[in-house]
Structure formats: structure tokens, C-alpha cells
Specification:
alpha+beta, 3-stranded mixed β-sheet, 9 helices, 7 strands, about 55% helix
Length: about 210
């Protein structure tokens, strides 16, 4: 088989795997999902994903599993392109002949979503076969995100003393930058008067709270 024909066959498999992944994990029910699908399904050479399939064939691996890995690799690559295009990076207006993600959906959707809590719930959802979990999406600064992340994760059943100490250190530093003092063991905050945290950039954070029943 010549290279061009083999490449096209791999490309068909990759695009089909991406469509399946998008329908499963990125349903068109929110701006976040629509923004992700806009860039992910907007074409491209898919070189990295194609290489995954080629190596799988070379090693006589599981083709179905390779399709999923190929889609995952392409998703990661697409995420990096979205960030590269942002005004604070390359400041590009076009990607593959179309307006870049932030030009269509805005910089907030394109660049600043983080999941600060709920990883275990998400893992549990996958184990029991649930495809969706409910979430709270909230605007907050980097320091506010650190505080919430520590408060949400410090109660883990298995946490090393060194991890606990580092978490409290992170929270204390964030409180200091905010001009606040805090009882680290209970999360009670006492803010100083005046404007707080004027210079920290705004980030949109996804806080997974509970599984959908």
C-alpha cells in the first residue's frame, strides 16, 4: 500500500474516533463544548493521531484501543493550538483558514478553564458508566482558586503529611497575596478592608460537585 492511500485510511479512522469522542464527552449543550468541537472538528493533518495508528499496526496492537488513544492525542494537540492562538501568546486571528477559537467564542472559553475539584467523582462516574456529572462553573482569581482547591482536597482520606503541609503553605501564600488572614484548619477568612486582589488574572474554573443520578 502506498503512503498516501494508507494515510487517508488512517485519517478516516481518526476523524471517526474524534466524532465518537465528541458525541460522548462534548455534546453540543454548552458554549464550552461547542467551542471545543469548533476547533477539534475543524480539520487538520492529524499527524500525531495517524502516527498512533501506524505504530499500533506495526506492533500488531488493538486497533479499537488505538483509535481511542489517537483521538485523545489529537484532543491534547488541539488544546495546545487553541492556547497558542490566544492574544497573550501568538495573537492569531485565523487557524486553518477559519477564525481562531477565541475570535468566535471569546478568550474566557478559549483559554481559562480548570477543574479544581471533583476528579474522584469524575473517576467514579466512569467506573459506574455515567457519561455526565453536574458541575459548578465560577469566575475566580488564581488565588481564590488555590484556596478553594486546598479546601476541597485537603480532606482526602489518603494524603501524606508533606502534601498536607505543602497545601497549607499554598493556601497561606494565596491568602497573604489577597491581603487576608485565615484559619487554615477551618477555612474561616477575615479580609482586610479595601480592594482585594486587583492584579490577579481571572480564571473560569469548573468545580464538579456531584454525580448525576
Amino acid at each position: 500500500m502506498d503512503y498516501a492511500k494508507q494515510y487517508q485510511e488512517y485519517l478516516v479512522r481518526v476523524n471517526a474516533a474524534l466524532e465518537t469522542a465528541c458525541n460522548t464527552y462534548l455534546p453540543e449543550e454548552s458554549d464550552v463544548c461547542r467551542a471545543a468541537r469548533y476547533s477539534l472538528l475543524g480539520g487538520g493533518k492529524r499527524i500525531r493521531a495517524v502516527l498512533v495508528l501506524a505504530v499500533c499496526d506495526m506492533l500488531n496492537g488493538d486497533a479499537a484501543a488505538a483509535d481511542q488513544f489517537a483521538a485523545a492525542v489529537e484532543m491534547l494537540h488541539c488544546y495546545s493550538l487553541i492556547h497558542d492562538d490566544l492574544p497573550c501568546m501568538d495573537n492569531d486571528d485565523l487557524r486553518r483558514g477559519k477564525p481562531t477559537n477565541h475570535k468566535v467564542y471569546g478568550e474566557t472559553l478559549a483559554g481559562n478553564y480548570e477543574m479544581i475539584s471533583g476528579h474522584r467523582r469524575l473517576h467514579a462516574a466512569k467506573i459506574v458508566g455515567l457519561k455526565k456529572v453536574s458541575a459548578i462553573v465560577k469566575e475566580m482569581s488564581d488565588d481564590e482558586a488555590i484556596i478553594k482547591m486546598v479546601d476541597a482536597n485537603i480532606q482526602r482520606e489518603e494524603i501524606l503529611p508533606s502534601e498536607r503541609a505543602f497545601s497549607f503553605k499554598m493556601k497561606m501564600e494565596a491568602m497573604s497575596r489577597q491581603g487576608s488572614r485565615v484559619d487554615l484548619t477551618c477555612g474561616t477568612e477575615f479580609h482586610k478592608s479595601g480592594d482585594i486582589n486587583k492584579k490577579t488574572r481571572e480564571t473560569t474554573l469548573v468545580h464538579l460537585t456531584q454525580l448525576l443520578k
